[in-house]
Amino acid sequence: MKILQLCAIGGTAKILLLPQINYFLSRNLSVEIACSPDSDVEELQKQGYIVRPIQIDRRISPISNLKSIYQLMKLMRQHQYDLVHVHTPIAAVLGRIAAKLAGIKRIVYTSHGFPFHDLSPPSQYLFYFTAEKICANFTDLILSQNYEDTATAQKLGLCQPEKICYLGNGVDIHRFNRARLDSTHQKELRKSLGIPDTADLVIGTIGRLTRKKGSGYLIEATAKLLPQFPNLHVVIIGGQLNTDPEPFQKELIEKIQIQGLEDRVTLTGDRQDIPEILGLLDIFTLPTYFNEGLPRSILEAMSMSLPIVATDVRGCREAVVHGRTGLIVPPKNSEKLAEALGTLLAKPELRQAYGKASRERVEAEYDEEMVFQRLMKFYQELGILFPELSKKC
Predict the structure, then answer these.
(1) Are 283 and 309 in contact (CB under 8 A)?
(2) Rounded to whole angstroms, how far apart are CA atoms 251 and 34?
(3) CA–CA distance, 299 with 305 (Å, rounded to integer)
(4) Interacting residues of 209 by C-beta distance below 8 A, sequence separation 6+
(5) Rounded to two decimals, what is the model's pTM?
């Protein structure tokens, strides 16, 4: 049976969707990807994945959006997919409209955080809620990465209660495991990233360089912490896409320079060796004020036995248990961020206790194998047949 996974950019497919795509390919389903053409798409194609490049803007642009719907509809009619599974806000709306017009029998939407949330301006909240409610009428199943969105959808009557289910998010707990780290390689990696030998405490974050990920607040917090922790170093993992609606890299670099932190901050750009870099950290933080679903970066850090400082936004407050696996602080508040980070920086035994509890929580709640099995069950309930299971029967 043929499944199409649809998202806006190749990076989403490569980083977020590939584990579940590989899971279903290993179970003899045909899985293809549709997203905008970019270097990540070329890389995926070279690796043997079937990727259908179709331009999908990440913003509302009526003419471009209509072109995307038309091209997606043509693609779906041509290949007659048994199920279309959509991701990311704009692509999810366009993809569901196209799937409905193409006569696709099964349409599934994973919400990586609804585009309406408690931090949305009222007009924006109403617009996105209305769009999601309309699309829910021709969506067979809506899967949420967090319990909060599931409850919100049911409370507001976004769709029939049976249409929305909790999927969760997960990580490869074997790959993200501190026990796998090689001490010699870690020393070389630390040196290559420009972390000085004198840096006895390292804070890190992961995320695209957009304003809403909050890295600017981390820089402000770092400046506040230096008098008490003079050997502190910060590692910001992630790059900037040409298609990012709010590019922030230039502004971030300027902020680092204004604060005089050029020797205290490492910008790694996009990296593939995330577990190893996380292994260099003492604390992980995500100072986001974005519409998070359930941040995989936090789960990866927790899987690496790190204590977490995160903001009180949807997704973060679900993954992190305040006072057990880390600390939750208000968003857009560098004072409170610095205070929480300072608490952990000053108490190694607390960092160790939170880090241990983080790993235990990921093993119990966020192993990606659990997510794959839930998703397989949902597919089966929609009538997707798994060849390997049929053979066993």
Answers:
(1) yes
(2) 32
(3) 10
(4) 215, 236, 238, 239, 240, 244, 247, 248, 249, 252, 267
(5) 0.93
Question: Which residue in 360, 198, 359 sits closest to 278, CA to CA?
Answer: 359
Residue 313's Cβ-count burial label (10 Å; 0-12, 13-18, 19+) is buried
As a whole number of angstroms, the longest Cα–Cα distance in the chain is 67
Query: Rounded to whole angstroms, how far apart are CA atoms 269 and 288?
Result: 18
Tokens linked to 122: 């009222």
Which long-range contacts (C-beta less than 8 Å, at least 24 apart) are formed by 69-72? 69/94, 69/97, 69/98, 69/101, 70/98, 72/6, 72/34, 72/98, 72/99, 72/102
> How confident is the prediction along the chain (393 residues), in pLDDT tens digits per residue?
999 999 999 999 999 999 999 999 999 999 999 999 999 999 999 999 999 999 999 888 999 999 999 999 999 999 999 999 999 999 999 999 999 999 999 999 999 999 998 888 999 999 999 999 999 999 999 999 999 999 999 999 999 999 999 999 999 999 999 999 999 999 999 999 999 999 999 999 999 899 999 999 999 999 999 999 999 999 999 998 777 767 799 999 999 999 999 999 999 999 999 999 999 999 999 999 987 899 999 999 999 999 999 999 999 999 999 999 999 999 999 999 999 999 999 999 999 999 999 999 999 999 999 999 999 999 999 999 987 654 543
First to last CA, the chain: 18
- Other beta carbons less than 10 A from residue 262's beta carbon: 9
CA 56 to CA 14: how far, in whole Å?
16
Rounded CA separation 49/71 (Å):
20
Q: Do residues 311 and 331 lie in contact, with contact meaning Cβ atoms separated by under 8 Å? A: yes
Q: Which residues pair with 310 in a beta bridge?
A: 286, 328
Question: What distance in Å separates the CA atoms of residue 327 and residue 321, rounded to the nearest whole number?
Answer: 7
Radius of gyration of the chain (CA): 21
The token pair that represents 28 in the structure block: 């003899």
Residues 6+ apart with CB under 8 A from 214: 207, 286, 287, 288, 289, 290, 311, 331, 332
